[in-house]
Design brief:
It is built from 25 helices and 9 strands. It is α+β, with helices and mostly antiparallel strands.
């Protein structure tokens, strides 16, 4: 621990502060990072994010801390053996780079941060560091504080090339998770002008690494890194894995590329599937929502924000808007529905005679969901007010009320199975809010696959797994993984379309339309095939996972708890096995 102690001791912490006040407490946290005390390591890590870089703001303590961390990430004692601490510090260095990504305006910031008369800032700093908490709060309104914070920005900016050199060696670390975090850090640190000559080589290294790795999370992180460095990962737009092709399409250099926009539009129809796209398709539940170090928040927010920035035609992305209505107004501004609303109502709230069919469908969906209209929901109020839209449910319901048409010219429906959610009575025999809705799905599934149904000699059973999850197991003929030997439909098509249009397999598509997740295993011609879907989107191609002497299939349906009312439940009595 000697090197860490020396680096920490070389800094005059009495002249620095962070988000919570004087930084005299920071040295012990930095030293704790290389201790063998798990609790102390955790507290130190929390201190970095809550005080040294909060909220995405650099402070006078940030530059020396970043320099010390760039050394500590090489220390084998870091984190008391917990490699996630090393990953977290790499992401912290990325955040430092992002916080000072002011390349175009660093010159005026530098000039204003160091006025000719430095006595003003010196006097303010001395007063601030010796004041009590109440007096410090009053001093925060003084203009000198802004000058001191600008100096922190300049100092961090000047430090970026040094940090970049310290991070580069981790591109060859044995852990894919550490390599991914190093890629994320380089994506912001290399924006410094001094790193411009290095970017082509870094892009090439990232492209080579993409081709070498079989880790989907690293694969996707590298593609985002290529985009952040100014590269063009067009070659990966056709990858069968949604997380990979989606991260390629996010590249800024592909902002006007029709193929990249098509990828983003298609993925935006099932935004939650993008959240699940960075773990192997059959990963255990604990690993299914693994994200990438470049994403701030859930991955779908980056997808939604980007597609809405690139597509001005709302009808083209309206299906995605309907998909996130149940997720809306849980923070402000709303990252799920807000960007869609901004595109949909770019010209303001429409009059009844000017509203488009796609706008009306979205307005009707928002107005219909009781869950969105809690009178105390300040997130909804703030989001709608900021967008210039009414925070009046009756106005949404009135505008969303369908007019009487002589034909279907004024009607808009989401593509494919997604339109079934707008007509649950037709397909399930119950409205969304009907307490019997979940049970009817299960009953219709049991009826479709019961003995006597036109599906051959098969034995089916229903198992109720939880309030909204049930399993259909059928012993008999499995589901073909592809269209071969004259098969009219393959596994993927059965859960993303209405199959042959007849029972029993028509029920697959109907069920999937009301599910947030579907997991399929098929025992067919001596092999086990598997595929998973989120909101009708396959997480990847059908996988062959081994040999079997069994015939039949098993499907786990999880009804969408976000779309259904909170009290929705499948009656346990509907289980048949």
């Amino acid at each position: 621990m000697a090197e860490a102690n020396e680096a920490v001791a070389a800094v005059d912490w009495n002249r620095l502060f962070h988000a919570h006040g004087p930084a005299t407490d920071t040295p012990r946290y930095l030293q704790a990072l290389v201790s063998d005390d798990d609790a102390a390591v955790a507290a130190a890590y929390q201190h970095l994010w809550s005080a040294v870089l909060r909220p995405g703001t650099v402070w006078p303590a940030t530059p020396p801390v970043a320099r010390i961390l760039a050394t500590l990430i090489h220390d084998p004692r870091l984190g008391a053996g917990d490699e996630t601490i090393r990953q977290g510090l790499l992401v912290f260095l990325r955040a430092v780079g992002k916080a000072v990504a002011v390349v175009e305006r660093i010159a005026p910031v530098r000039e204003s941060a160091y006025p000719s008369d430095a006595s003003v800032t010196g006097a303010w700093l001395g007063a601030y560091l010796t004041a009590d908490e109440e007096d410090r709060a009053a001093l925060c309104t003084h203009p000198a504080r802004d000058l001191v914070l600008r100096r922190a920005v300049v100092d961090c900016f000047d430090l970026l090339p040094e940090l970049l050199d310290q991070v580069k060696p981790f591109l060859t670390h044995p852990s894919p998770a550490v390599r991914s975090c190093a890629v994320a850090a380089i994506g912001t640190l290399a924006r410094h002008p001094a790193a411009a000559p290095d970017r082509p080589a870094l892009i090439h290294a990232f492209e080579q690494a993409v081709r070498a790795t079989d880790d989907i999370r690293e694969h996707a992180a590298l593609l985002i890194g290529i985009g952040e460095l100014g590269g063009t990962p067009r070659a990966w737009l056709t990858d069968p894995r949604p997380g990979v092709r989606g991260c390629a399409a996010l590249a800024p250099t592909l902002a006007d590329d029709p193929a990249a926009i098509d990828v983003l539009v298609a993925l935006s129809r099932s935004p939650r599937a993008f959240d699940r796209a960075f773990a192997p398709m059959l990963a255990p539940p604990a690993y299914r929502l693994m994200s990438l170090p470049q994403f701030e928040g859930t991955p779908r927010w980056a997808l939604i924000d980007t597609v809405c920035a690139r597509v001005a035609d709302f009808e083209r992305i309206a299906t995605g808007a309907l998909a996130v209505v149940p997720l809306a107004f849980r923070m402000a501004p709303c990252p799920d529905l807000g960007p869609f609303l901004e595109v949909a109502f770019a010209d303001g709230w429409p009059t009844p005679d000017a509203v488009t069919p796609a706008q009306r469908a979205l307005v009707a969906a928002v107005g219909e969901h009781d869950e969105l209209w809690d009178p105390d929901n300040a997130y909804r109020q703030a989001t709608l007010t900021d967008l210039g839209l009414p925070d009046d449910r009756e106005r949404w319901q009135a505008l969303g009320r369908p007019p009487v048409f002589r034909d279907h010219s004024g009607v808009w429906l989401p593509d494919g199975l997604r339109g079934l959610r707008l007509r649950p009575m037709r397909w399930v025999g119950a409205e969304r809010t009907d307490p019997a809705f979940a049970g009817k799905i299960v009953s219709r599934t049991a009826a479709a696959f019961s003995a006597g149904a036109d599906n051959g000699p098969q034995a089916a059973r229903i198992t109720i797994q939880s309030d909204l999850t049930f399993t259909l197991t059928v012993e008999g003929r499995g589901l073909p993984p592809s269209r071969r030997d004259g098969e009219p439909f393959a596994l993927t098509e059965m859960f993303t379309g209405l199959s042959t249009g007849q029972m029993p397999h028509l029920q697959f598509g109907i069920n999937a339309a009301y599910c947030s997740a579907v997991s399929v295993r098929s025992w067919f011609d001596g092999r086990v095939y598997a595929q998973e879907f989120i909101d009708l989107a396959p997480l990847g191609p059908v996988e062959d996972i081994g040999a079997t002497d069994r015939s039949g299939f098993e499907v786990i349906f999880t009804l969408d708890s976000q779309w259904l009312p909170a009290d929705a439940v499948i009656p346990r009595s509907l289980g048949t096995g």
